[in-house]
C-alpha cells in the first residue's frame, strides 16, 4: 500500500525530535563546569528500552514454481512492496573512551504490501510482510552527546504469499518465516542523560526460500527471494539499573561525556517545525516499447498540465556540532490535466485519445541527516544523505479520439473513469543545504539533491480492459530536486515564508509484462513537478528562554526546565488536517468467493473537542472528533468488474492517556470509530453499476504528541489506525439486481491539529531574545567583492524544443520537453565601486537533459506520428555581471553568450523499414539571468542563480533514406530554463572583518 510507505517516517522524525527535546530539559544538571574538565556526568553505558517507527520497501522475486507452474515457459516475476512499520527495542551499550559497543533486540509490526506479475503475466503474485525483527551488535563513535554507529546481525520477517490467477476463482496462499542478515547505520542524539532520539537505515537480506502455497484444489511449491530497505526514527529511554556486573545508565563506564554547557549565545540545539501549502504543476510521460523488437515504440501516454495542491508538515533539528536532521511529509490532490494516449502499432491505424485528468492523489516524504561543512557568522553550508518518497495516482475520465482510429469514437463522456496511472518513487538522496541570514529578519535557504538511484513501482489500470489489470510496472532510475525558501521572522519564534521547488525523476531500466507473453516490454518513464509554496514555522531551542546569565565561577546554567505551573487540565476545542490511506478487501465481489482488494487514499480535515485531567505527570482525557475525508480507490474485481470505494466521513470517540513534561504531552488513545462509505461495482461489459452506502462502526488506536505554543494554544501531530472489520453488504443496481459482498475495511491517518484550551494552562517563555531589525537597504558594504573567484555549481532545469513539421500545423506533437541535472564550475572577476559590482564570468557544465515526444504526424496515415528525442549533455555561458552589494550580500543580473552540445534522435523503427537515426552538434545562442550571492566567510560565498538560455534555430540533418526525405533537414528551435546552487572562493581581502550578529 503506497500511502503507508512515506508518511510515518516523516511524521515520526518530527514528533520524536519535538517530543524528546523540550520534554527532558528538566533532566539536565543544574550546573555544569564550562572550563576545566570534570568527572563525566553521563555516558552511553547502560540498559535502554525504546520505540521506533518508519517506512520500508522491499524487492520480492518470485523465481520458480512446481506442478503446473513449472510447465510454463516463464514463471518469474519481480515486484516492490512498501509500507509502514513500528515497534520496540531493548539494548545495552558499553562505552570505553569515545567508542561505544552494544547489542540490541528489536521487533516490529509491519504493513508492507506489493504486487508482481508472474506465470507469464497471467497471475498476480502478492507479498505481504506483517512482522520483522533484528538481533544486532552495534559499534559507534561518540562526540559531545552525539553517537554515530553501525549495526549488523540477524534478521527475521514473517511473509504471506498470494498467487491469484486471472482464470481462478480462489487464490493460492502460503506463509513463511524468513531468516537472514542485516546491516545498517544511524545517528543518535542524547537530549538528556535518560532520553535519546535516533535516525537509522537498515538493509535486510533473506536469500532464497521455498514456500508452500495452497488453494481449495491444490498445493504448490514456489521459490521466492526478498530484500528489505528500512528508514526509521526512534526514541530510547535509558534505565537506572544495569546488567549483573555492569554499570547502569548514567554511571561512567571508564569514560563518558558531559552534556556540555556553552556560551549563552550558542544554543546546544535548535528546532524548527512548520506547515506549507504547495501549489504545483506536473508533466509525466510513459513510453512502452515492443517486447519482440525493443527499439520500436508501441504506445505513449503523455500527462500534461497536471495541476495539484498539497498540505505539508516539515521539521529541522540543528545541533551546535554541525549535525542537522530534517524531514517533511505532505499529501494532496491532483486537480486537473490532460492525457494523450497514443498507440503506434503498424498493423492498425494510429490512435490518439484524449482524457480529462482530475480527482487524483499525491503524497511525498523525506528524511535527511547531514553535517555543516562550512559555518560563518551569518550562514552555513552542509552536505547530507537522505531518503525520498513520492507517490501519485492520476485518474483519466472520458475518452475522445483525435486521430483516425475507431477507439473512443464516438467519445466516452467525461463522467466515466477510464484509466488510472499510479506510480511510487523511492530513492536515496545526496544533497547540499545552505542557510544564509540576509538581514536580522530575512533568511534564504537553498536545498539541492541528486537521487543517484531511485526505484519506481507503477500500476496502469485501463478500467475497460479488466483482462490486463493491474498492468504492473517495475524499474529504477535517478532523479533530482531543487528548492529555495525566503523566510521572514515576525517574532523570535514565528516565521513566515515563500518558496519554490522543482522535482525530476526518470527511469534508466523499466519494464512490464502482458498476459501470455514470455518476454517483458521495455518502458521509459519521466516525471516532473514544479511549483511554489507558502509556509509558517515555529522555532525553539535548548535555552528554553532568554539567554542564560553566567553563574559565578565560570559555571553556566543548564538549559531551562519546562515552563513552571503548566497544567493540561481543562476543556479544549480545535481543528485538524491530514492524510489518510487504507485497504478494502472484497471477498465475494463476483459471487465466486474470490478475494480482491484495493487501496484508498486521500485527505482528512475536521474538528475535535475534548477534556483532560492531569495527575502529576499523568494526563487522562476523552476526545471526540469528526473529519471530512476524500478517500478513494479502485481495483479490478475479476475479469468484468471494477470495484470503487469512496469514504467522505471519519469519526472517533476515544479515551486518552498521556505523560506530560511541562508543555509537552506524549499520549496514546483508543476507542470507537465510524466511517461513512460509498461502495460501487461497475460492470465493464454492459454500462451498469451496483452500489451501497453505509456508515460502519469499528475501533481505533493511535498515539501522538501535543506541544504548548502559547498559554492557551497547543499544536499536535497524531497517527491513528482504525479497523472496521468484515461486513456483508448488499450491492444493488438500478434494475433491482443484488450482489452480496463481504467487505473488510481499515483506515490509517496522520493529522496535524491545533487546540484552544479554556482557562489558564501556564506560561511559555520565549526561546531567545529579539534581535534588532536590520533594513534590507543597509548602507555601506561589509566586505569587498573585488577580485578573481572560482567555484563549483550543481542544478537542474527544463528545456523545450520545437521541430518544424512539413505536413502543416498538428493537433498534437512536435514539441519536446526535456529535463534533468547539470554540474560544473565557474571562474570570474568582480570589481566593486561603492555598492555597485561589475564583473565577467565563464562557466561550463556537464548536463543530462533528456526528453521524447511524438513528431511528424502525417508521415504515414497508418502510423500517424513517430518518436523524436532531444538530449543536451553540455552547457556553457560567457557573461557580464552587474550587481548591488549590501552587508554580506550581492544581488546581480547577468547576460551574454551561450553554447550547448545537443543530440537529436529520430526513431523510424516500424515505419517502412526505417531505423533509429541520430545527429550531434554544438549550438550557439544567448543567455540572461539573475541571482543572489552571500558571503559565508571572508573568502567563501554561496549563490543561487536562474538562467534563461536561447539557442535559436538550427537544422537537424539525419541523412535519411529517400523515402523519408520530407522529414530530413528540418528546422529545430530550443530554449532552456536553468537553476543553479553554487559555491565560490574569492581571492581577495575583505574591507572589514565580518561580525557575528547572533
UniProtKB/TrEMBL annotation:
Listed Pfam families: OMP_b-brl
Main location: membrane
Segment forming the signal sequence: 1-25
Subcellular location: Cell outer membrane
Annotated source species: Rhodoplanes roseus
InterPro entries with a match to the protein in the record: Beta-barrel_OMP, OM_adhesin/peptidase_omptin, OMP-like, OMP/PagP_B-barrel, OMP_A26_sf
Molecular function terms, GO-annotated: aspartic-type endopeptidase activity
Keywords linked to the UniProt accession: Cell outer membrane, Membrane, Signal
Annotated ranges, domain Outer membrane protein beta-barrel: 36-208, 554-758, 782-987
Record-given protein name: Outer membrane protein beta-barrel domain-containing protein
Family the UniProt entry places it in: Belongs to the Omp25/RopB family.
Keyword Membrane in annotation: yes
GO annotations of cellular component type: cell outer membrane
Keyword Membrane: yes
Transmembrane segment boundaries: none
Amino acid at each position: 500500500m503506497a500511502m503507508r510507505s512515506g508518511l510515518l517516517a516523516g511524521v515520526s522524525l518530527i514528533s520524536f525530535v519535538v517530543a524528546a527535546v523540550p520534554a527532558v530539559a528538566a533532566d539536565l544538571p543544574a550546573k555544569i563546569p564550562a572550563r576545566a574538565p570534570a568527572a563525566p556526568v553521563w555516558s552511553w553505558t547502560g540498559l535502554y528500552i525504546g520505540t521506533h517507527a518508519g517506512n520500508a520497501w522491499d524487492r520480492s522475486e518470485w523465481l520458480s514454481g512446481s506442478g503446473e507452474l513449472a510447465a510454463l515457459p516463464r514463471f518469474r516475476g519481480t515486484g516492490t512492496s512498501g509500507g509502514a512499520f513500528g515497534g520496540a527495542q531493548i539494548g545495552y551499550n558499553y562505552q570505553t573512551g569515545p567508542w561505544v559497543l552494544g547489542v540490541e533486540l528489536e521487533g516490529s509490526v509491519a504493513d508492507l504490501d506489493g504486487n508482481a506479475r508472474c506465470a507469464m503475466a497471467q497471475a498476480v503474485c502478492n507479498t505481504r510482510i506483517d512482522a520483522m525483527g533484528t538481533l544486532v551488535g552495534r559499534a559507534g563513535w561518540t562526540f559531545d552527546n552525539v553517537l554515530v554507529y553501525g549495526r549488523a546481525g540477524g534478521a527475521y520477517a514473517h511473509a504471506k504469499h498470494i498467487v491469484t490467477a486471472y482464470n481462478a476463482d480462489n487464490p493460492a496462499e502460503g506463509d513463511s518465516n524468513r531468516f537472514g542478515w542485516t546491516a545498517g547505520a544511524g545517528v543518535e542524539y542524547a537530549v538528556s542523560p535518560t532520553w535519546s532520539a535516533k535516525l537509522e537505515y537498515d538493509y535486510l537480506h533473506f536469500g532464497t526460500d521455498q514456500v508452500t502455497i495452497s488453494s481449495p484444489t491444490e498445493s504448490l511449491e514456489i521459490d521466492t527471494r526478498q530484500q528489505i530497505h528500512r528508514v526509521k526514527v526512534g526514541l530510547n529511554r535509558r534505565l537506572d539499573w544495569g546488567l549483573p556486573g555492569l554499570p547502569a545508565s548514567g554511571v561512567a563506564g571508564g569514560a563518558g561525556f558531559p552534556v556540555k554547557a556553552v556560551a549563552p549565545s550558542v544554543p546546544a540545539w535548535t528546532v524548527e517545525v512548520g506547515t506549507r501549502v504547495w501549489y504545483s504543476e506536473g508533466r509525466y510521460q510513459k513510453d512502452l516499447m515492443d517486447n519482440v523488437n525493443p527499439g520500436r515504440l508501441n504506445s505513449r501516454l503523455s500527462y500534461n498540465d497536471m495541476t495539484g495542491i498539497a498540505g505539508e508538515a516539515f521539521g529541522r533539528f540543528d545541533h551546535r556540532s554541525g549535525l542537522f536532521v530534517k524531514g517533511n511529509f505532505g499529501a494532496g490532490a491532483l486537480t486537473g490535466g490532460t492525457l494523450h494516449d497514443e498507440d503506434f502499432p503498424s498493423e492498425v491505424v494510429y490512435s490518439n485519445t484524449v482524457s480529462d485528468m482530475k480527482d487524483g492523489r499525491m503524497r511525498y516524504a523525506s528524511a535527511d541527516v547531514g553535517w555543516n561543512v562550512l559555518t560563518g557568522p551569518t550562514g552555513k553550508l552542509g552536505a547530507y544523505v537522505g531518503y525520498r518518497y513520492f507517490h501519485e495516482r492520476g485518474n483519466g475520465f472520458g475518452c475522445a479520439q483525435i486521430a483516425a482510429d475507431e477507439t473512443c469514437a464516438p467519445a466516452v463522456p467525461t463522467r466515466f473513469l477510464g484509466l488510472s496511472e499510479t506510480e511510487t518513487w523511492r530513492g536515496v538522496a545526496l544533497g547540499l543545504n545552505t542557510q544564509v541570514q540576509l538581514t536580522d529578519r530575512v533568511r534564504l535557504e537553498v536545498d539541492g539533491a541528486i537521487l543517484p538511484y531511485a526505484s519506481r513501482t507503477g500500476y496502469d489500470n485501463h478500467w475497460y480492459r479488466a483482462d490486463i489489470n493491474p498492468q504492473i510496472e517495475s524499474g529504477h532510475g535517478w532523479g533530482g530536486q531543487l528548492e529555495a525558501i525566503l523566510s521572514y521572522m515576525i517574532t523570535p519564534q514565528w516565521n513566515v515564508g515563500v518558496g519554490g521547488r522543482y522535482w525530476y525523476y526518470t527511469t534508466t531500466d523499466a519494464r512490464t509484462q502482458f498476459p501470455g507473453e514470455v518476454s517483458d516490454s521495455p518502458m521509459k518513464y519521466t516525471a516532473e513537478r514544479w511549483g511554489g509554496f507558502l509556509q509558517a514555522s515555529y522555532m525553539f531551542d535548548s535555552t528554553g528562554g532568554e539567554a542564560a546569565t553566567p553563574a559565578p565561577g565560570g559555571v553556566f546554567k543548564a538549559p531551562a526546565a519546562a515552563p513552571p505551573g503548566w497544567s493540561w487540565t481543562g476543556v479544549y476545542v480545535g481543528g485538524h488536517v491530514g492524510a489518510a490511506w487504507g485497504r478494502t478487501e472484497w471477498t465475494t465481489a463476483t459471487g465466486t468467493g474470490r478475494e480482491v482488494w484495493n487501496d484508498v487514499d486521500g485527505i482528512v480535515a475536521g474538528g475535535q473537542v475534548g477534556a483532560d485531567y492531569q495527575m502529576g505527570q499523568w494526563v487522562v482525557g476523552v476526545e471526540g472528533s469528526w473529519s471530512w475525508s476524500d478517500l478513494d480507490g479502485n481495483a479490478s474485481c475479476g475479469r468484468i468488474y471494477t470495484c470503487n470505494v469512496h469514504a467522505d466521513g471519519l469519526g472517533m470517540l476515544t479515551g486518552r492517556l498521556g505523560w506530560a513534561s511541562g508543555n509537552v504531552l506524549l499520549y496514546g488513545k483508543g476507542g470507537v470509530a465510524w466511517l461513512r462509505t460509498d461502495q460501487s461495482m461497475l460492470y465493464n461489459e454492459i454500462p451498469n453499476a451496483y452500489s451501497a452506502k453505509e456508515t460502519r462502526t469499528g475501533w481505533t488506536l493511535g498515539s501522538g504528541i501535543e506541544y504548548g505554543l502559547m498559554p492557551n494554544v497547543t499544536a499536535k501531530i497524531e497517527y491513528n489506525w482504525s479497523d472496521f472489520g468484515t461486513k456483508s453488504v448488499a450491492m444493488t443496481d438500478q434494475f433491482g439486481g443484488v450482489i452480496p459482498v463481504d467487505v473488510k475495511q481499515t483506515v490509517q491517518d496522520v493529522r496535524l491539529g491545533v487546540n484552544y484550551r479554556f482557562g489558564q494552562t501556564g506560561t511559555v517563555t520565549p526561546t531567545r531574545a529579539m534581535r534588532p531589525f536590520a533594513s534590507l537597504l543597509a548602507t555601506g558594504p561589509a566586505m569587498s567583492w573585488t577580485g578573481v573567484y572560482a567555484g563549483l555549481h550543481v542544478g537542474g532545469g527544463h528545456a523545450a524544443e520545437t521541430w518544424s513539421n512539413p505536413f502543416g500545423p498538428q493537433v498534437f506533437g512536435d514539441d519536446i520537453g526535456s529535463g534533468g541535472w547539470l554540474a560544473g564550475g565557474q571562474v570570474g572577476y568582480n570589481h566593486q565601486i561603492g555598492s555597485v559590482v561589475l564583473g565577467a564570468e565563464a562557466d561550463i557544465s556537464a548536463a543530462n537533459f533528456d526528453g521524447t515526444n511524438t513528431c511528424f504526424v502525417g508521415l504515414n496515415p497508418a502510423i500517424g506520428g513517430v518518436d523524436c528525442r532531444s538530449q543536451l549533455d553540455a552547457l556553457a555561458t560567457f557573461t557580464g555581471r552587474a550587481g548591488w552589494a549590501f552587508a554580506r550580500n550581492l544581488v546581480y543580473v547577468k547576460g551574454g553568450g551561450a553554447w550547448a552540445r545537443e543530440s537529436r534522435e529520430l526513431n523510424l523503427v516500424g515505419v517502412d523499414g526505417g531505423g533509429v537515426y541520430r545527429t550531434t552538434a554544438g549550438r550557439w545562442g544567448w543567455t540572461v539571468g539573475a541571482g543572489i550571492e552571500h558571503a559565508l566567510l571572508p573568502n567563501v560565498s554561496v549563490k543561487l542563480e536562474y538562467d534563461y538560455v536561447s539557442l535559436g534555430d538550427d537544422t537537424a540533418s539525419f541523412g535519411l533514406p529517400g523515402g523519408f526525405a520530407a522529414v530530413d533537414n528540418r528546422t529545430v528551435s530550443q530554449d532552456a530554463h536553468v537553476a543553479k546552487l553554487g559555491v565560490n572562493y574569492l581571492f581577495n581581502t575583505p574591507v572589514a572583518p565580518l561580525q557575528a550578529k547572533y
